[in-house]
Amino acid sequence: MRRQTVLFIFFLALPIFVSCSPSTMRPANKRMDSNQTSQSIPATSSKLKDQSSQQPASGKSDSVTTSSAATLPQLTHVALVVLENRSYDQVVNNSEMPYYNSLLRRYGLATNYFATTHPSIGNYFMLTTGQIVTRNDSFSGTTAVNSIVDVLTQAGKTWKAYAEGLPSVGYIGGSKGRYLKRHNPFAYFVSVQASTTERLNLVPASELSVDIAKNALPNFAFIIPDACNDAHDCSLATADRWLQQHIDPLITDSKFKQSGLLIIVFDEGREDDRSHGGGHDSVLLIGDSVKPGYQSEVFYQHQNILRTILQVLGVPNYPGAAATATPMDDFFLSP
Fold first, then answer.
1. Could you please report the per-residue DSSP string of 101-112?
2. 124-136 burial, b if ≥16 CB within 10 A, otherwise e?
3. Is 112 in contact with 299 (CB distance < 8 Å)?
4. Which parts of the chain register pLDDT below 50?
5. Could you give the dihedral angle defined by the CA atoms of residues 222, 113, 122 and 158, in that order, rounded to the nearest 10 degrees?
6. Which of 17, 152, 157, 279 could form a disulfide linkage to 273, CB 3.0–4.6 angstroms apart?
């Protein structure tokens, strides 16, 4: 009888035990980080192994995916400016960069953004293909992976790469003077090199002011200062003056203000900053569609910028890691 009583009590208690087991005690749903990791990642977290998608430089990726658009503004123009080799704590609130810091107070700042890798070239490829492609800054080959050029062209959108110091329109040769080819991923794309028409979209940065004045900006503009003005070889103060001189006219252009988005990103953090692959970066999103003075704590990387660019331009296909990355939708006012 005693044994039966013990068993009876055990079975009565079993539902309570199961209902309190760790596997069933789950917190309320919270937004995952932007790249579908299993837990949120704070800006000061430890290093994360680089798990970005890669393909051989000569291979053609099949990773382009069509996906439904989230609630984002639909814009006519997006411009991406890439600066060099500074971590977040070197840039934000730095008195050497008064213009840059005035922009982050007015527009949107990503506070939990990390580059993908070191050195530079892999980050430029991630921003434009969703893949690292190579980590060799001396890479002199070509790549046929799907890129932003391919999906923009398929969607009937236009593009240009405005490269300061580019020797001539359509130049696809090596570095010259302060122009560094490894900062211009478009010059490596087979789809650009093989087309006389596409090569005409590789232009010196001086054409940016001309296109602004003529209301002839492409849907996507990739803007790279030379190796001094991007802070690679010179000071942050030099880069800040360049931004104010060359980018402020774009920000204040009435037509761009109405239908444009500007993103300013550093390609990677300083060399000793290896957090999440390429270091802690600061990123600005600028435009009338961006929440004023907004600071995002969401974890983002370069593939999120690529996804955002294409999605706000209404392009339904996303190459490489951009196919599974989320857009930076928390930055935007309700459309």
1. HHHHHHSEEEEE
2. bbbbbbbbbbbbe
3. yes
4. 1-32, 36-63, 66-68
5. -20
6. 279
- For 20-52, write each residue's pLDDT tens digit: 333 333 333 334 455 543 333 333 333 333 334
Structure tokens at 91: 């840039």
Tell me whether strands 317-318 and 260-266 are parallel, antiparallel or unpaired: unpaired
d(CA 48, CA 38): 13
Query: What CA–CA distance (Å, rounded) separates 206 from 230?
Result: 15
In the three-class reduction of DSSP (H, G, I as helix; E, B as strand; rest coil), residue 134 is classed as coil
Please, are residues 131 and 54 in contact by the beta-carbon 8 Å criterion? Answer: yes
User: How many CB atoms neighbour CB 186 within 10 A?
Assistant: 24
Contact 235, 260 (CB under 8 A): no
- The reply to whether omega before 119 is within 30° of 0 (cis) is yes
* Cα distance between residue 150 and residue 315, in whole Å: 11
Q: Which amino acid is at 188?
A: Y
**Amino acid letter, 147:** S
- The answer for residues whose C-beta is within 8 angstroms of residue 139's C-beta and 6 or more apart is 57, 121, 182, 188
pLDDT of residue 276: 86
Q: What is the dihedral of CA 266, 317, 312, 190, to 10 degrees?
A: 50
Strands, E assignment, 130-241:
159-163, 202-204, 220-224
Q: Within a 10 A sphere around the Cβ of 255, how many other Cβ atoms? A: 12
170: phi > 0 → left, psi -120 to 50 → alpha, else beta; which? left
Q: Which two tokens stand for residue 285?
A: 């999103």
Name the average pLDDT for the chain: 85
SS3 73: coil
